[in-house]
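Lab notebook: predicted structure, single chain.

Context: the supervisor wants predicted structures on file for every construct in the current expression panel, including those that have not yet been purified. This is the next one on the list. No modifications to the sequence; it matches the entry in the shared construct table.
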Amino acid sequence: SLTLKGRTEVQGRPADRYEGAFSDELVWEAADGTLLYVSAPDGSALLEQAAESAAPWTGTPAEYEVGWALEGYTDPAALFSSGVGTWYWVRNHTLLELYYVNDPICPFRVPPGRMPEEVTVNGLPGLFWPSIFSREEWDARVAEECSDDPNSFMNWDTEEAAVLTWEDPETNTAFRISGIAEKEELLRTAESVTRKSP
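Prediction complete. Output recorded below exactly as produced.
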């Protein structure tokens, strides 16, 4: 949960600053009435800089869909907006996330300090970082920490999770799947991602 920590200005407009256990956020209303927010981990000094640089994206969205349902996971929740897509699946109180961004302005966050393995996703080069936990180790942590609340979630950090990234050069789209999962699951999910007809 987030706690309101004060007010500031973003692009000359009033903004609320929130602090949370894992990230801080700035929320403000743009001149055209659009509600915007920027999130950064744990009080990052880049939070206000990122908010000040926010501008409307003017590209033509390339949208994608996922064709494979992960075994043992819930049906996905999906969100799409202006060249950004997100899917979330849940298995045993744990999220698995897939993001894509058209015309990314920076790379996705990946596990620091761990060397990736080169992989191929539908003929395109990708990088894979395994989770530092086995499925059995993670499930044991979940059993210990979530036993009292059937609706709770176990949060993982990118440093702990399995991560798979790749890009589609035809549409200049970057993809990242992350969670506590096996390489084969992430690759099969990635290879089921296809572009929707324009």
